[in-house]
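User: These chains co-purify. Model them together.
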Amino acid sequence: MTVAAAPRPTNRYLDRPAPSSLADVINTILDKGIVIDIYIRVSLVGIELLTIDARIVIASVDTYLRFAEAVNRLDLTETQTSGIPELMEDINKSGSRGRTGGAIEGAKEKLSEMFTSGDNDEEDQADRPRSQSRQPAESSRPRQTGERRKSSEEG
Amino acid sequence: MAVHLYGVMRAGASLPNEVGGRQGAPARLVEDGALVAIVSDVDIDARPRRDDLLAHAHLLEAVAEQNTVIPMQFGIALPDDQEVRQRLLQDQRESLAHLLETFDGLEQVTVQAFHHEEAILKEALRRNPELAAARSVTQALPVDAAQSEQVELGRAVAAALEDLEEQDRVGILERLCPHAVDVTEHDSRGAHEVMHAAFLVKRGERPAFDAAVAELRRDHEERLRIRYVGPQPPYAFLEAASAGDLAWA
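Assistant: Joint model of the two components:
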């Protein structure tokens, strides 16, 4: 899984935190907050179901095969002289950047698709890694999104 | 028409200039006693879109920059301002006041860290010579014949990655926690996700926390991708606060 890092405009050294992306909202804050006993639901068909169990099943044969394939492809020639970097130490800057891929990102993307219909969400797009090899395990996909997404796209 | 609820602040707190709410409507305040609710008028028949979710979240984040705000869950509306006063500000006065006091002067920031796949796989091989050896074996085998060896190799790689993730998770927390009052980790993590945690930070300590995050990014750029989101209302700590489970509060 040697994927060249595409140039991507980032504020890597920006000191301030950024606003939430759609993925953040869905992933971490949608089900948080105060509720009150009696209220009008703001036509929220489907929204409650968004708080899915996005837990990833790492221990699957597919995942193992993907990791095996990834290490088999690694070119180790330029890194043999490196020491063993610890997080708390300085690491030399020679390592090339790979891409994070992952089922949870895939799951978020699926969820994001539910809020389509002409909304532009460039910030969200820019904020998420674009994995070129996303292979979420089947079991990690959000359940029951198909129908609702379909109706969302129609609407 | 109805009134969408965003959150509750102490009376006297003001909204940042020109913050918009859902459906482009301006946010406004509904006050009762010592509490003030942030609301905007909404058409409840309109289907909520991603813009609505983001408007809700971003408005609260803009507010959290200056004031402590107790967030409402997305998707709650009441018929009119009078209902907001009665059902929210009066009926829940005590618990809201308690939460506002608990989180006074505090804001949440969220940090998420991922390993770059190639860099971390190389690191795993460097640290585990037996992986490199197993890799040499599988590479020498015909692709079709090596399925079980591949699975074993992958299983060993996954275990090595888990060790590295745990080590880096601890390392990141050690660097950031000294600048925070409290931390809550998110329970589900994706592939190569090292850490996902919400930190509760004193407003005055934010620059120190910002600097710690920037330093992490700078020092480990080739290995970690770090997302830094906020400031936010104290979403991740509300439940514990309501239950009286915050040791420091």
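Chain A touches chain B through 89 residues (CB under 8 Å).
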